[in-house]
């Protein structure tokens, strides 16, 4: 695999500029077609019936009255799917409940009807006989041996005795000797931190349009972060061959990890199969909140020791994440990332993956890491302040750098944490004066970043323009980045390249748009595809000139003789070579397929000023600055956008967002009215500082940037609020009632 | 022989060792070697793991070369958002 | 469901009286949410916006009559209304987003009968009345007498509110409304407080009305709070007493929006802050 | 149940449609008229993605019945550009990367245009409060607010 081709420091012509995105006009005129924006002839409307109980055995479902309603064309329950392969069993059970409904909002049946009104009516005619069971939604309660059990007999061998069967697995990471380290400390902070469950909160609800014919061929249009994943998962569930199912990704109205799994798609396909007509399904906002992936809520014990000069002698954390109704919370990611920013001799994390009667957690931007960082960075802040040490200096003193053995095992190559801390220290924000009831917080964050299976095909048209086909939905400007990298590599102007997102029939397997992988991995494949096309074009020029193809090089968008021995020939531009492609062997293309492993990790440091109203506990964000290593910022405006968006999602998580369950296990706030994501008037501008410490694993040095920005904010804001309020905040969200109670408790105590 | 570091909770299945030695020149040989020497690791290997080789993370590329000097660390399978 | 848009009050009354499950549509910002969530399934929706006068603000007896379909945005653009009852206008202006402001009405906010309705404490403090039309004719009642319990009003079947009347602004009077929400916009009040007061030339309170929202099953007029400041200058001690009276009067529940302790405490905090704004306005200063 | 016949103007074009009494204006625009530029993010007036103007007033089309559009003048995102000329806000949003996924963009543009028509020189705070009912989850609003302020400044200079 050709990953070790990192070019020496180079100057870029296109990369690093801020051209208009290719899909810009579609998106500002309303022409862009998102998940719900498509129709098909004869289309039916699909709707889902959802459990009103947090935990119930489904004794019987009687759909006969619904089927008899005029206009109803198909009704589906879990029974229609039959047995499915083991690796998708939980997936289909989450899309359509089997023996038990495991959370409020769990799908139990679906209909396809001639109109939305008929579909609505049909749902009411479905009789479900539920045997209501005791439920549990809190992570600590779910771990107790006497907690109601969701799944019996599925516990991994890694879980010790004494826990409920809801504890699905246990992981442990670290090195050194915690007790020895703690003994060396001048002070030890030991606290429990809790975070509420938050939702990714994309503005576009899940939507799809499925068409399946009696010949077994199917077409699916949907908003997803990965249409290849949708294809593979749906094919497995429906017992189809992957090649028979063509999935086209619509424009996607946000995902943040929440659209890396299927919810409606297999159901729509089954409805279409049974009805023999296209079926469109669109979730309502309340369905999105009740039944699609939120994050884990967590409970984390931290114990950190520090010497009075600020050296961390030991770090321990026990992390308990509930991942909703099925195993697979990101507690392993949290456990691996918790102490990743620090060079520690003694470090240990233990993680428990717990199931509860809540919707199955889906990935959310650096899944698992923000909560762990919240706990660890809060404790470090408390220690630093206790010794009256500068919190940035303390972090610098302990910062991981090249050669540090990471808390999760490997030795770091060149990384950018110190650079972000130094930039933070030098920034005017750090020394700006603060007023009464105001506080400043800082925190660091880490994310792994991924690569994965990736295909890119680059075609040269007869008139010398270039089209790039990639297989990853463009969630925030990636078409622009790919276009830029192709133009850069080919040495042609940006506007001579057009990038499209191809459907599953057009390219090979592509990993989901996740793990901050796209600019890294698809970018790498785009560059390599361009290099292959260049090689071909050099060959064509060599044919024309009658010289060896090795004697031709590609410079500034044209083939040239590589040296004096190659003879004197005028350069042939891409356009000139394209024009004679038919005469020199046929169309010119470059393609590249790779499992792009070796992504570079990423670090960031956030700084925030807040003001807390001591009479109401309300927090106002006054100033916010993000410092992050981007490796190489391909389109800096969209890099800044990732930093800003991640920070603001973090602000929501820190201050107001949370899933609120009643005693009855029913979600109380399934709407944007009471699931309170930040609005424009809540916020200041979000300043950004992009650091560029090249990733040796990418030809241009690119690192993923999308996820890291959500890791530090929870702790940075908690540290700022704690300073402003004069009391250490350990539970998120720091909603006004919680902050006011803490302030009053402090006064009382 | 390649030295392989395993994470804490896997040590239970490697006779308490957090570092084991496996004869391997590629990732595939490494995984096969681990499963052969330490059958207790098999459930975890089947669930999927990531491997850091000299600080870079690999998931599936069997023929990624590993040298005796390589730093090899088993990781939980990484997933992103 | 049937939709009708009658041109006269009489036609509207006939339609409403003639159908079970009939609902009035003015701004629709609550009604459509309930339709959408299937909380309501009306047989008939009567759109009153095409009835003459429903979209008008007219001077009357030194005060202002506000048609039932006048939106918050329209109120905010009416200079006379803003000058006389800034608290009521601001309260109406707090309901929802700019988009919601383009439609939401005082009458609708009142008839939705939510204890957390923003404009209602402000109207109660201003001693506003409503004109109700119905099969039995026309009657005027105080705003405070409209809500009965959460989601229920005292209006009889077939009746609807045709207009809201804000009385003449007292000389040296001022009003204010404040609410607490977790964000800066788009939330439902966790606590709301309306204050309307009149000061004498020495700055002492000669009359006051203090109301609270979201701390009981319906908006309440807190007479003890008004008494606490009556005859006094609004110094720290008077404001403390006002706050204490409001906290004592609050009988909130704990829900997804706030705790009992929080609501009690913040009721006092808001009363104090709102009284200071109202007093500033009473002195003819801008606040 | 018979459908309601509505005569209205949409983006200046005389338009007639039939709808059910319970259809919202958003349902009509998207499902009956094929104008899918207005988006449904919540259906409850909390996200602003369906923003349109009716007789010049900014509203959520999900909070208005289609039948209420009788005789009104509705403008949507589809009417924002003039021929092949983008509105200055549309141009600025592209230039300043004021969108990421783009789902909230139509509603924000319609709302911002309505603001600038009413207030050509808004402060940052005024822009933020005017747009508080338009949720964006990608951008953190920074570039959106800057783009609106910048467009306002351009328009003031041009006039």
UniProtKB/TrEMBL annotation, chain A:
UniProt cross-references to SUPFAM superfamilies, sorted A to Z: CO dehydrogenase molybdoprotein N-domain-like (SSF54665), Molybdenum cofactor-binding domain (SSF56003)
Membrane-traversing stretches: none
InterPro entries reported for this sequence: Ald_Oxase/Xan_DH_a/b, Ald_Oxase/Xan_DH_a/b_sf, Ald_Oxase/xanthine_DH-like, AldOxase/xan_DH_MoCoBD1, AldOxase/xan_DH_MoCoBD2, AldOxase/xan_DH_Mopterin-bd_sf
Which Pfam families has this protein been placed in? Answer: Ald_Xan_dh_C, MoCoBD_1, MoCoBD_2
Q: Which domain of life is it from?
A: Bacteria
- Per the record, where are the segments of Basic and acidic residues compositional bias? 1-10
**The Aldehyde oxidase/xanthine dehydrogenase a/b hammerhead domain covers which part of the protein?**
29-134
Annotated spans, Disordered? 1-22
Keyword field: Molybdenum, Oxidoreductase
Q: Which GO terms describe its molecular function?
A: iron ion binding; oxidoreductase activity
Provide the protein name.
Answer: CO or xanthine dehydrogenase, Mo-binding subunit
From TrEMBL, chain B:
Which superkingdom does the taxonomy of this entry point to? Bacteria
Report the InterPro entries cross-referenced here: Beta-grasp_dom_sf, Mopterin_synth/thiamin_S_b, ThiS/MoaD-like
Record-linked CDD domains: Ubl_MoaD_like
Coiled coil spans: none
Protein name (database record):
Molybdopterin converting factor, small subunit
Origin organism is: Roseovarius lutimaris
From TrEMBL, chain C:
Entry's SUPFAM superfamilies? Answer: CO dehydrogenase flavoprotein C-terminal domain-like (SSF55447), FAD-binding/transporter-associated domain-like (SSF56176)
What are the residue boundaries of the FAD-binding PCMH-type domain, all occurrences included? 1-171
Q: Which InterPro entries match?
A: CO_DH_flav_C (IPR005107), CO_DH_flav_C_dom_sf (IPR036683), Diverse_Substr_Oxidored (IPR051312), FAD-bd_PCMH (IPR016166), FAD-bd_PCMH-like_sf (IPR036318), FAD-bd_PCMH_sub1 (IPR016167), FAD-bd_PCMH_sub2 (IPR016169), Mopterin_DH_FAD-bd (IPR002346)
Q: Which SMART domains match?
A: CO_deh_flav_C
Would the keyword Flavoprotein turn up in this protein's UniProt record? Answer: yes
Swiss-Prot/TrEMBL keywords: FAD, Flavoprotein, Oxidoreductase
PROSITE patterns for the chain: FAD_PCMH (PS51387)
One GO MF term, please? Answer: oxidoreductase activity
Q: What is this protein called in UniProt? A: Carbon-monoxide dehydrogenase medium subunit
Instruction: Tell me the organism.
Output: Roseovarius lutimaris
Its lineage opens with:
Bacteria, Pseudomonadati, Pseudomonadota, Alphaproteobacteria, Rhodobacterales
TrEMBL record, chain D:
Alphabetical list of PROSITE patterns matching this protein? 2FE2S_FER_1 (PS00197), 2FE2S_FER_2 (PS51085)
Keywords of this entry? 2Fe-2S, Iron, Iron-sulfur, Metal-binding, Oxidoreductase
User: Sorted alphabetically, which Gene3D superfamilies does this protein's record hold?
Assistant: 3.10.20.30, [2Fe-2S]-binding domain
Query: Please, which domain of life does this record's source organism belong to?
Result: Bacteria
Where in the numbering of this chain does the 2Fe-2S ferredoxin-type domain appear? 4-80
**What molecular function does GO assign, one term?**
metal ion binding
| A UniProt-annotated Pfam family | Fer2_2
Q: What is this protein called?
A: Carbon-monoxide dehydrogenase small subunit
